[in-house]
Amino acid sequence: MSQDSFSELCTQLRPFIEKKITKMRVPISVETQVAVTLYYLSDEGRYRKVANAFGISRSSVSIIVRTVCIAISVHLGPKYIKLPTTQDDVRYAADKFEEQTGYPQCIGAIDGTHIFIKKPTNIRYYLS
């Protein structure tokens, strides 16, 4: 992520995640909150690793990740993600996506990244 993109994301999230300075503490900055969340989401998702990298507690990482993800999905999601609302819109989107990619019955994809999922070792398969 470029520095400009990061700064823009922080600016857009600031009204929703910025905390007030009190006599008891200075809050974690918006930039640090966004960086913590991006680091957590981009890696294996381990609170301990993120907490050590940023010098904050695991519970703070948990709260920050949840707060930032909710702010992104509630406030920025509708601004950037437009889903079809009628059956005709869904059919049109599915047809266009299949035309462009060859995938049937799909209206879109996030970024084409493939995520490896380990198969559980203790599952038995039964043929009927």
Summarize the topology:
Layout: H1 3-17, H2 30-42, H3 47-54, H4 58-80, H5 87-101
Helix pairs in contact: 1-2, 1-4, 2-3, 2-4, 3-4
Overview of the molecule:
This protein is mainly alpha-helical. It is 58% helix and 0% strand. Helix 1 crosses helix 2 and helix 2 (30-42) packs antiparallel against helix 3 (47-54).
Structural class category: mainly alpha
Distance between the termini: 50 Å
The helix-strand sequence is HHHHH
Strands, count: 0
Oligomer: single chain
Give the count of structural domains.
2
Largest sheet: none
CA-based gyration radius: 20 Å
What is the mean pLDDT? 88
Low-confidence stretches: none
From the spread of the alpha carbons, the general shape counts as extended
Q: Tell me what portion of residues adopts beta-strand conformation.
A: under 5%
Helical segment tally? Answer: 5
- What portion of residues is helical? 55-70%
In short:
This protein is an all-alpha fold and 128 residues long. The chain has five helices and no strands.
Give descriptors for this structure:
mainly alpha, 128 residues
